[in-house]
Amino acid sequence: MDMVGKKMNANRVLQSLTSSWKQFPRDALFFIAASCVNATGKAVMWPLTTLYVHNVMGKSYGEAGLVVLYQALCSVLGEFTGGNLYYRIGPKTMISGSFIISALTLYAIAFTDSWPLYITLVCLLGFTNGISMPSMNAYAGFRWKEHRRRLYNVMYVCNNAGLSIGAMVGGLVAAVSFQLTYVLTGTTTLLFAVFLFFFMKERALHSLESAEPAAAVKEDGRHGHDDARAAVQAEAVRMNLSSLLRNIRLYLFISVGSMFFWLSFTQWTTGVAPYIEEQGMDLKYYSLLWTVNGIVILAFQPFTNWIKQNFAQNIVRQMLVSALFSVAAFSFILFFHELYVYLIIGMVLATLGEMMLLPAIPTFFSERTGVNAPFYMGLAGGFANVGRMIGPLLFGHAFDLWGIGAVFFLGTLSSLAALVMFYIHANMNKDPDPVPEAAFRTLGA
What we know:
This protein is an all-alpha fold. The chain has 18 helices and 2 strands. It folds into 2 domains: 24-199, Growth Hormone, Chain: A (Up-down Bundle), CATH 1.20.1250; 239-428, Up-down Bundle (Growth Hormone, Chain: A), CATH 1.20.1250.
């Protein structure tokens, strides 16, 4: 009877997952699959940049660290630029074009032995990758508006699965040839660009588009009254940079909170990795932590859905809960890190926070900022990349000077700062101003 019961439970889970996927339009599933393949290809290269600079280009690890820093800085600039160019160039042209440039850049990196040219190409790669991120999130939110909450979550899960697969494959490919990793990544990126060029279609009327004020879109995704709807013209959208930036309650605290959140998360790479090595443990135990990260992302979806239904019914509260998980994770390993199992517990809690936050940010901007979502997504993404950029510098110096205790202390303070920022953001965005929302015609479609 026990075996029969377990089989029945497994069947129910499988049916639930199948029915969930069937709720998405077929073209949305194609978009998710292509995005996953692209994430897999990029992850083939990511873990190997430092080794490539040292082993192939013959430079020091310090110079390799500067290259990574330059790339991250260019990615920040790319996010800001992508948010501003979404309507001026059009999502189809910009997204597919940025991926084509990325692919050509990767091919060029594979066949150059010039150090100045390599740095230039890596910076260009970071810039083009940054451009594509807010554009893809905005496009998905506009095109499949009625599915975007679940869509952002599924995209996050699938992309992380792709990252895990790619990171594993990257080591195997690099054992054959470092150049092959760049060629393989360039090929998957180029295929994704071609797919997007033919896939992205016109989703709005050429003239007037019926749109909803964001205040009329309730947290459960249902629409408000018809009298809240307003006709807007897609081509008439004008990005007034100064007025958008003045609306600080809408973007500033969520962006700064995201920056602190990701700053605290970088202590896994800059603090925990050298700590594990310092303790005399094999580095495979560090890799195992990221295996735990991937397993939690895939297996704990029902748990995070339960949290959302019972404790985080709206998006701003979901961000608060994500920060609480982050604070719990880093506070725990601050006081308990002597045993490896404590690090695993900390990774589980931190991953739950990541799972709650990443889909929430694009959802918030899609629902609350309407046609200005690409700009605000790029702005928030730029802040997040600043956190990822300065985290390794901060925690690296802290570890060298004071040890792992200082790293965990600063990481906990950073997670607390993120919690404060998200709390302020939640209190300032209980009743958002009505903002028009529309899907937009892609240029060249």
